[in-house]
Structure formats: C-alpha cells, structure tokens
Amino acid sequence: MSRTPGRVPGNGRVVAIANQKGGVGKTTTAVSLATAFAAAGRKALLVDMDPQGNASTSLGVALGDRRPGVTELLEGRTPPAAAVRTTVVEGLDLVPATSALARIDEGRPQVDARHLGAAVAAFRTTYTDLFFDCPPSFGWLTLGALAVADGVIIPLQCEFLPMEGLAQVMETIEMTRAGPNRNLALDGVLLTMVDARTNLARDVERDVREHFRSKVFKTEIPRSVRVAEAPSAGEPVLLYDRHSPASQAYVALARELLTHEAYRMRS
Ligand SMILES: Nc1ncnc2c1ncn2[C@@H]1O[C@H](COP(=O)(O)OP(=O)(O)O)[C@@H](O)[C@H]1O
Ligand SMILES: [Mg+2]
Q1: pTM, 2 dp
Q2: What is the number of alpha carbons within 13 Å of residue 251 lying toward its C-beta?
Q3: What is the CATH number of the domain that holds 102?
Q4: What residue numbers bound the domain in which 233 lies?
Q5: How far is the CA of 228 from the centre of ligand 1 (A)?
Q6: Ligand nearest 18 Cα, by number?
C-alpha cells in the first residue's frame, strides 16, 4: 500500500468497530484494520473497550502489563499518555483492557464520559487513526465509543437472519446521532467469515447488499484458519501470515476505506 503523508495534528479520525453480537469479527477487524493502517505508514491507536481484552492479547500485550489502561482512563485516574502501550506492530499503539472494564459497562457512577472525550481529544493530536474495539453489547462502553467516534464499521457474519441484529445496530446509531453525536457516519457494513461456497452466505450477501447498497464494503473477509491461529501467537493475522486470504482482504479493506470522502478530506 502506498504511504499516506502525515496529517494535521488534532485531526486524527476515530472509528468504532461495533455490533452487539459476539463472534462476528469485531476484534479481528479492529486489530487487522489498525495493523493495515500502520503498515500504510499511518500512526494508529487501538482502544480495547472489551473487558475480555482479546484485542490486547492479539497485539501481544501481556496480562500483567494492562494497567493503567482503559479502565483507569475512563475513571480519570491516569493521564491519557500513560495508558498507551506499544505493540508488536510498528506504528500501532494500544490502550489495553482488563476485566475491571465490566463494571464500567454496567454504568457505574464514578465514570464520567468527559474523561473519554478528553482522552480522545488528546489522542487525535498524536495519532492519525483511532480504532475502538467494542464489546458485544450496547452498554456504556459501546455507547461511549459511538459518542466520540467519527465513523462506525459494523462487521456482519454471513449467517441466518443477520438483518434482525443489524436493525438494532442501526437504531443505536440513530439514537447516537439524535443525542450525543450527530456527526457519526456509518463507514460501512463489513461481511466477515465469508464462505463463498455456501448458498446461505450467497443469499445473506445478496440481501444485505440489496438493503444497504453502497453502505456495504466491496471488500469481504473470507473465512481463513490462519485468523483463528494468530491470537494464540500474540500477533495480528497480518504479521502471522500476511499471504493468507483474510490478511490480503484486510489490506484491501484499508485501501477501500482510505478512498472514502472522510479520509480524502483529511489526508
Ligand atoms: N475471517 C475469519 N476466518 C476464520 N475465523 C475468523 C475470521 N474472523 C474471525 N474469526 C474467528 O471467529 C471468532 C470471533 O471473532 P472475533 O473477531 O473475536 O469476533 P468478536 O470480536 O465480534 O467477538 C474468533 O475465534 C476469530 O478467530
Ligand atoms: Mg471481540
């Protein structure tokens, strides 16, 4: 991918990877897309908003090295810069998650949304691109990420009845626009774990594309065993096997996203 020149400080773009359903490819997408952006010469930050900490594990940040992280950031107990770790990917930093995040998702009162806003404002001056890996719920953490994001990507697994789940995501985006963040853009719906050989995948894809039209990324992510192997190696699949079809697809996705108006305006 060609290198994108440095952007104006304070102008970093924030993308939330969200879907209330678990196991649809949110973390894989957040980690892989952020890695592809870093490989393209951008300065990326991934914020792990899931108490399970899968993104932190996938980027090689050990359990013992996750404090201060997102929890302390949201509680205003750490300066933003102290919550950041470098990762196994050059050009990609991480704000790690711990299981303590779970109590924040339930909306504990000591958490103040302004802490997140202030941290993101600071990060926008240091990074060209911020990615939020959201948990599988529409609790405080996902809503908080949507409130500070410029765009949202919805990974969608090509399976039975995906439209029902999608309707709920779209409602949440509308609610966010009507409330805390009227500028939130739907960057796109991403078809993940696509197995083109099955009729079901083809049917689902047709339905989703008919319904959401240009809001569905042209790039689809194929199912690939390498994706499932990579996290246990503490590496994103793009490092683990950059030739795997899924790695190649995520590089293509980064390219596609960077052609969007929202990026062309900024670079
Ligand atoms: N393209 C893919 N091919 C094969 N397995 C995948 C792919 N994308 C994700 N997976 C696997 O599916 C599971 C769920 O993916 P994950 O990204 O963790 O979803 P979420 O964050 O939405 O829960 C993980 O075990 C992951 O390794
Ligand atoms: Mg996840």
Answers
A1: 0.94
A2: 17
A3: 3.40.50.300
A4: 13-264
A5: 7
A6: 1
User: Which pLDDT value is given to residue 6?
Assistant: 44
* pLDDT tens-place string over residues 112-128: 778 999 999 999 999 99
Identify whether 210 is part of a domain: yes
- What CA–CA distance (Å, rounded) separates 162 from 21? 10
Tell me the average pLDDT across 18-28.
96
Assigned domain for 188 exists: yes
pLDDT at 4: 44
Strand partners, 132: 16, 47
C-alpha–C-alpha distance, residues 267 and 262, integer Å: 9
**What separation in Å is there between the alpha carbon of 27 and the centre of ligand 2?**
4
Report the pLDDT value the prediction gives residue 51, as an integer from 0 to 100: 95
Based on the structure, what is the number of domains in the chain? 1
pLDDT above 90: percentage of residues in the chain: 78
Ligand 1 nearest atom to the CA of residue 249, by list position: 1
Q: By alpha-carbon position, which residue is closest to atom 15 of ligand 1?
A: 25
Q: Is residue 3 part of a domain?
A: no
pLDDT at 3: 42
Asked whether residue 5 is assigned to any structural domain, the reply reads no
Instruction: Report the b/e string of 65-95 with b at 16+ CB within 10 A.
Output: ebbbbbbbbbbeebebeebbbebbbebbbbb
Q: Which two tokens mark 108?
A: 């504990």
Rounded to the nearest whole angstrom, what is the distance from the C-alpha of residue 29 to the centroid of ligand 1?
8
What's the pLDDT score for residue 107?
67
E-strand spans in the chain?
A: 13-17, 44-48, 85-86, 92-95, 129-133, 151-157, 185-192
pLDDT at residue 242 tops 70: yes
